[in-house]
Structure formats: C-alpha cells, structure tokens
Amino acid sequence: MTKRKPTPREPMLSGRLALITGANRGIGLAIARALAREGCNLIVTGRDERALARARTELDKLQSEKVREKLNVPVLAQSCDVRSPDSVDYLFALVRGLRKPLDILINNAGIGHPNRAVGELPYPTWMEVVDTNLNGLFLMTQAALAVMKRGSTIVNNLSIAAERAFPGSAAYNASKHGALGFTNTLREELRPKGIRVIALMLGATDTALWNTLWPEAPRRKMMSAETVAHTVVNALLLPENTTVEKIVVMPSSGTL
Ligand SMILES: NC(=O)c1ccc[n+]([C@@H]2O[C@H](COP(=O)([O-])OP(=O)(O)OC[C@H]3O[C@@H](n4cnc5c(N)ncnc54)[C@H](OP(=O)(O)O)[C@@H]3O)[C@@H](O)[C@H]2O)c1
Q: Is 90 one of the annotated active-site residues of the chain?
C-alpha cells in the first residue's frame, strides 16, 4: 500500500506578531521556527549577530509569502542585550516603527554558570546571571507592555530551577526563583487587561546551555528544543478566554 502524504493544515497564528529573545539558537530558535510555521511575523533577538543572521535566513524560508504579505516585512532580526536598557529601548523603537501591536512575547534569553558552591561563586558570575535572567526579563517585559493589547500572551522561559534548588547553581536558581515571583505578579496585574502570562518550567533540554552548566551531562536523556517549542505553541493556540498558567515539561527520566 502506498503511504499518503499528510495534507498540511492551515497555519493557526497567521499574521500575529511575535518577539522572541535569545532566538539565535537553542530553545528560542526552536520556538521561532514553530511560530514561523504557524504563520507568525517574527522579531528575533540575541547578541551574537552572525548566529542571528543565520537564524533570520532560515526563518525567512519557513515563512510563507502569504504571511509576509500581511505585514509587509521579512523576519526582523535585531541584536539586543537584554541587560542593557539602551539596547532594549532601541529594539522597541523598531517594534513601534512596525505600527502593529505585539501579540506574543517569548522572554527566553538566559544563561547558566559553571557548578560552584556559594563559597566559591565569583561575584561577577552572580551579577551576570541575575542581570540576564532577572533584570533582563524585567526590562524586556516593561518595554513590551507598551505595545501589547488585550488578547496577547507573554511566555517567560524559567526552569524547574525556579522552584527547586540544585546545589552548585545558586545564581541560576536564585535568578529563576526571582523570575517566577516576577511572572506570578505580572500575571495578576495583567489578568484584568486580558493579557495571558505563562510560566514555562523546563527540565533538561539539549542545548548549548549545558556547555557551561555541566559539559558531561547525559544529553541522550534530555528533551529536544523542538519538543519544548511544540508545547509552547499548543499553549498559544488555546482560545483567548483560556490559559495554562504554568507549563512543566520534563524528560520522562526526571532530573538527570
Ligand atoms: N537547556 C535547558 O536544559 C533549560 C532548562 C530550563 C530552562 N532553560 C532556559 O531556556 C532559556 C534558553 O536557553 P537554551 O537552553 O536555549 O540555551 P542557549 O542555547 O545557550 O540559548 C540562550 C539564548 O539566550 C541568548 N542570550 C544570552 N544572554 C543574553 C543577553 N544578555 N541578551 C540577549 N540574549 C541573550 C543567547 O544568545 P547570545 O549569546 O547571542 O546573546 C541565546 O540565544 C534560558 O532562559 C534557560 O534558562 C533551559
């Protein structure tokens, strides 16, 4: 029997505008790919401009002509350091220039640090991690709120480290615990405005993050970034009057 090719379904988020931080690789890029397939117009950011240019070329190819016609812009790839108020301001000047509200914000940019007990953790490492994972989340969200309307969604990529404590990861754990507190507060503030806020709580996912966190970690036990992206898109596809407030996605083997 000859196998029938499945009929491609219509994109479900056609013409929506989505901004993803840290989208030049890893989970951010996987989410950007999944949103491109669902017909979103994309703004992707990160600091490494070469990686960002590669991501843009790839995402441009995934977007259909139909999608581009709706906004008349190709994928917008803009270098942005989430720790820098000036860099975030510049990015949002470009977003405002599109003259279209932002429908989806994926706060994904984040870093880990080498395994060190608190007594040996260098203060600059602590500062860098908290600045990126917590202060950056605040800066991006505050700037985005000015261009978001009822019906839009914010997804904050936290971690299971936002609720659990992993020894040797004090700065990462603390930044993600803080980011969860921020996310929960934001959700209550935005509830009356009809903006959904989702806490994404992931277990180990196979990305470059583990090169700093634990280089020898067993990658085969980890989830793929594509699997994570799939769960995020499913949450974004829920009707406007429904939300998942917290998505917990884990490797079936549990923590590593
Ligand atoms: N991998 C996991 O197991 C796992 C589990 C739970 C949660 N997470 C979370 O998932 C998110 C994405 O991580 P990943 O695993 O995909 O790691 P990754 O491959 O290292 O990606 C991190 C992304 O964040 C960007 N980034 C880092 N610092 C930035 C800054 N100051 N300004 C702007 N962008 C910055 C990076 O781009 P540039 O370096 O070019 O800026 C990169 O695109 C993080 O928030 C992480 O905490 C990951």
A: no
Domain extent, residue 36, equals 17-249
Dump pLDDT digits (tens) for 165-188: 999 999 999 999 999 999 999 999
Q: Is 20 in the pocket of ligand 1 (CB under 6 A)?
A: no
Does the beta carbon of 208 sit less than 6 angstroms from any atom of ligand 1? yes
The response to whether residue 49 sits with its C-beta less than 6 Å from ligand 1 reads: no
Alpha carbons 193 and 191: distance in angstroms, whole number: 5
SS3 content of the chain, % helix, strand, coil (to 5): 45, 20, 35
Here the CATH number for the domain that contains residue 233 is 3.40.50.720
Confidence (pTM): 0.96
d(CA 31, CA 181): 24
Q: Are the beta carbons of 132 and 88 closer than 8 angstroms?
A: no
Ligand 1 atom with the shortest distance to the CA of 24: 43
